[in-house]
Amino acid sequence: MSAVSERVRRAGESGGRLARAPAEARTRALQALASALAQPAVRARVLEANGRDFAAASGLAAPLLRRLTLDATKLETLADGAGQLAARADPLGTVLARRKLDEGLVLTQERCPLGVLAVVFESRPDALVQIASLALRSGNAVLLKGGREAAESNRALADVVRGALGSSGLPADAVQLLDDRSEVDALLGLEKGVDLVVARGGKEFVEHVRARSRIPVLAHAEGVCHVFLHRSADPSKAAGIVVDSKVSYPAACNAAETLLWEPGAEAALDATVAALRSAGVELRGDGATRARHPDMTVATGADWDAEYGALILAVARVDDLDAALAHIARHGSQHTEAIVAEDRSAAERFLAEVDAACVFHDASTRFADGYRFGLGGEVGIGTGKMHARGPVGVDGLLTFRWLLRGSGQVSADYGPGKKPFLHEEL
Amino acid sequence: MSAVSERVRRAGESGGRLARAPAEARTRALQALASALAQPAVRARVLEANGRDFAAASGLAAPLLRRLTLDATKLETLADGAGQLAARADPLGTVLARRKLDEGLVLTQERCPLGVLAVVFESRPDALVQIASLALRSGNAVLLKGGREAAESNRALADVVRGALGSSGLPADAVQLLDDRSEVDALLGLEKGVDLVVARGGKEFVEHVRARSRIPVLAHAEGVCHVFLHRSADPSKAAGIVVDSKVSYPAACNAAETLLWEPGAEAALDATVAALRSAGVELRGDGATRARHPDMTVATGADWDAEYGALILAVARVDDLDAALAHIARHGSQHTEAIVAEDRSAAERFLAEVDAACVFHDASTRFADGYRFGLGGEVGIGTGKMHARGPVGVDGLLTFRWLLRGSGQVSADYGPGKKPFLHEEL
């Protein structure tokens, strides 16, 4: 048995014990994790490890270094997230439906964990604690592989999580750190034992994972998010929302990439353009936009499908709400789409008709986030429609089973002309 | 634009109209479908078309002919299914969660259709009406391709469904019949426009579909279902359940393929073996089973993973419940697993620990079916854990969207040291 399949086996066995333990044990472990992250000695150990990673990573670009760096505030947020999850009702065994098919024949649809997760994430060590916390609350075992720049930080944080499991009488092997990419590749090749792979990172990496794996993969392909300025848009709201959507974290998948505006929204457009300029955003306009703002760069066809991940925004005029919906249907990635409008009926039409995971009215696209949505964090954001959609928290890590408790019934006794089913909801 | 992409476009547009129509319109269409299927003139037309298919299919094997044949009872069951779905609450717009993130910033998680489905099904024309009914209730457009042996029946039934849509003011193009396999292959190659492919049919066909498509595929790979006789099993229940699980429809994916028994269950085993023999089932035993029933064929390693789809059953002795669980974990296909036991705590352990879509106590594996479960039919049975699991009815054809209604909020104002989120459930 290869090293990785042995790890997967141990994860599966530990995950079973984790899932069958009473809800209080998982709650205790999350509380233990939250209080460990608040202890000065633990913090010192984690920050010291992070310091070693930081020292080794001196050549990295500033945004990467910012992701890599842990500090007291980040550790506080993590403790807070684990505490929030500890306070949430345990989802395991929740009954989704209970139906009497016949006397003495009762069907129950009950929530249960997926089983074993494998999560490959970027060089952001706080992601490790978030993901492990969500796995714990949902009763899943998890194999984690973070960016190698954060290796020391990840090891220190994994020790904290495993310590919290152990001190709560739960198997530490429900959370394991994979050592290198070759272990990830070996894991992707397994036929059995891993139920879901969560791939966080660039488009090429996600494609690499999908191509190698027969295991279901949760990943967002890309985030090409739009903000549409309706003619009724309030200029100051428009400027604030678009700046936040683009500038607060340009590398995030929920950042806006294209601004759409319709005739009548000129005041909102002008205020937005001025605010974006002050924030140092490069603007690429179509002909109609450049007729009003001639100093914008010329947008080409490729701009409407670009995920810049940088301080660049494409700007296009559309004829009306219908044309905005058509542009989004054609170029959007079904991630997050927003309208700025004082006209409620226009906003409600936008909310009703856009086919995307998240559709917002008068709010920044950057709210599309598991922590902000109140999910207690996220393992990632899904842009597909199957299973989870949008920010994936605890719910996205669960499935269900159909349990039927009978007393000897056979199917041949039921049907047209025979016994009818009762199908009575309990 | 190719013929099939034009059809997909029309389906998408019609699906949008179907989904945005009031719930009453979808209910009316289902009622219209139910009453059309009860009208003598409609029945005569459908049965006549089916007769033509039957005449052309004279060379087919008896089980295939049975699937192909429509009769008054089958049409009654279909009318009944459509009527049941008409009586169900409309799921669109159902709120799964509503949360106040802050004053004037409210998040709603709302159910919505997947969009456009493509369903490829075997030569069983009643499946067409079942699938179309489920699509209608869930607000999805559907492109259908049935087995070519049922071409005339499918055309007649599709006309009935499209008539019901039209007479209810809904676009008939929400339900379309594809003409041939080349249209299916062209559809699988599309990048956009189809949200889910449901592949019903043999393993090779499902693999063919998966390999060609970037669209998510819902399909059950196989059904290797077990019945385990606990030492507390009641012999007459055991015999009844195992015979029904194997004999009532051996080609079904929810039919049992392997019988497991433990020491102490000899009386249940003997009764079951006798009943299976009377029903003409070939039994293949392991050494321990043949020591008791020497006239069984010898089971080889391959038998424990076989989906016979025929009147053959493998029989193995396991040491105890733990060994039964281990055998099922190794050889089962996560479809449907059953225990026969008078001992409730053994049964509950089995229900708690088997990782499968359906886990039954003292009931035939053949109950794993959307109609029997009270889902108003099924588009298929899923053995994966993502999205739908087990029989897939209306719920499996839905996804959700996150709608956020704000009043100008930006993300940079929230977080540690800034504004806290309220996260108040509404």
Summarize the model shown.
By secondary structure, the first copy, chain A, is of the alpha/beta class. Chain A has helices at residues 3-20, 23-38, 40-56, 62-68, 72-87, 126-138, 151-167, 181-188, 203-212, 235-247, 266-278, 287-292, 321-331, 344-353, and strands spanning 95-102, 105-113, 116-120, 141-145, 175-177, 196-199, 217-218, 225-229, 256-261, 282-285, 297-298, 312-317, 336-340, 358-363, 380-382, 390-392, 398-409, 424-425.
Written account of the structure:
The structure is a homodimer of 426-residue chains. The first copy, chain A, is of the alpha/beta class and 426 residues long. Chain A folds into two domains: 3-90 and 109-220 and 384-401, Aldehyde Dehydrogenase, Chain A, domain 1; 225-367, Aldehyde Dehydrogenase, Chain A, domain 2 (3-Layer(aba) Sandwich), CATH 3.40.309.10. Helix content of chain A is 41%, strand content 21%. Chain A contains 14 helices and 18 strands. Chain A has helices at 3-20, 23-38, 40-56, 62-68, 72-87, 126-138, 151-167, 181-188, 203-212, 235-247, 266-278, 287-292, 321-331, 344-353, and strands at residues 95-102, 105-113, 116-120, 141-145, 175-177, 196-199, 217-218, 225-229, 256-261, 282-285, 297-298, 312-317, 336-340, 358-363, 380-382, 390-392, 398-409, 424-425. In chain A, the strands form four sheets. A seven-stranded parallel beta sheet of chain A has the order 11-10-12-9-8-13-14, with helices on both faces. In chain A, strand 10, helix 12 and strand 11 (297-298) form a beta-alpha-beta unit. Chain A is globular, with a radius of gyration of 25 Å. The mean pLDDT of chain A is 94. At the A-B interface, helix 5, helix 10, helix 14, strand 14 and strand 17 of A face helix 5, helix 10, helix 14, strand 14 and strand 17 of B.
